[in-house]
């Protein structure tokens, strides 16, 4: 197998890793917003899934413009991008757990502009991953659909968890997502260098 081809299991793990930010925000939404019910859970999950699916596509086509020029260092690019994203997720989780903000949740209502801002903010990482997709042979449409579907599902689960368990699982989700992305970056690098 070509070391530059991402297998299905790795792609699923990558999608789960990317979805962890949306999952964590969904937990917060379920915890903090009084008007967060089934309709709002579906709206936020749909927005998160849509943006997480579109951003890699945008990154992919941007990356394709210069993929031939960087083919010899593509494994380094994937390692650096996924490593930085993963480390940033872990750092944010650590900061939130050690510097908790006093969030007053009562009376807050979730609005469409807030949902859209959250969807964009949680999907920026997926844009960078899309660039790495351009240099490692990935069926971009399958990848985007998978990322979209997994993000949607995990966001729904996060919304329900937020209603029940709140902040207990939010930081752990971000750490898990960060670790997954770092491991995938290392796997791509090792496969390209040694196989």
Quickly describe the structure.
With 195 residues, the chain is an all-alpha fold.
Could you explain the architecture of this structure?
The protein has 195 residues and is an all-alpha fold. The protein has one domain: Growth Hormone, Chain: A (Up-down Bundle). Helices cover 77% and strands 0% of the residues. It is built from six helices and no strands. The protein has helices at 8-32, 38-64, 74-98, 112-135, 140-164, 170-194. Helix 1 (8-32) packs antiparallel against helix 4, helix 1 runs parallel beside helix 5 and helix 1 runs antiparallel to helix 6 (170-194). 46% of the residues are buried.
Q: What is this structure's SSE topology?
A:
Layout lengths: L7 H25 L5 H27 L9 H25 L13 H24 L4 H25 L5 H25 L1
Helix pairs in contact: 1-2, 1-4, 1-5, 1-6, 2-4, 2-5, 3-4, 3-6
Shape: globular
Number of separate structural domains: 1
Order of helices and strands: HHHHHH
Gyration radius (Cα, Å) is: 17 Å
> Number of helix segments?
6
Task: Give a count of the beta strands, DSSP E runs of length 2 or more.
Answer: 0
> Strand share of the residues?
under 5%
Distance between the termini: 9 Å
Mind describing the biggest β-sheet? Answer: none
InterPro entries: Mntp/YtaF (IPR003810), Put_MntP (IPR022929)
Transmembrane segments: 40-61, 73-90, 140-161, 173-190
Keywords: Cell membrane, Ion transport, Manganese, Membrane, Transmembrane, Transmembrane helix, Transport
Function: Probably functions as a manganese efflux pump.
């Amino acid at each position: 197998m070509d070391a530059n081809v991402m297998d299905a299991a790795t792609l699923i793990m990558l999608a789960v890793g990317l979805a962890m930010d949306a999952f964590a925000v969904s937990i917060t939404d379920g915890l903090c917003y009084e008007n967060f019910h089934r309709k709002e859970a579906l709206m936020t999950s749909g927005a998160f899934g849509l943006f997480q699916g579109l951003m890699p596509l945008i990154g992919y086509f941007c990356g394709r413009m210069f993929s031939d020029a960087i083919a010899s260092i593509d494994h380094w690019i994937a390692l650096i991008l996924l490593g930085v994203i993963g480390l940033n997720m872990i750092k944010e989780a650590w900061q939130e757990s050690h510097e908790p903000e006093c969030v007053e949740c009562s009376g807050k209502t979730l609005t469409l502009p807030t949902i859209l801002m959250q969807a964009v903010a949680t999907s920026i990482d997926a844009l960078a991953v899309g660039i790495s997709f351009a240099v490692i042979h990935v069926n971009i449409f399958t990848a985007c659909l998978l990322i979209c579907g997994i993000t949607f599902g995990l966001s729904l689960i996060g919304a329900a968890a937020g209603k029940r368990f709140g902040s207990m699982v939010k930081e752990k989700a971000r750490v898990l997502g960060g670790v997954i992305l770092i491991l995938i970056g290392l796997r791509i690098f090792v496969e390209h260098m040694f196989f």
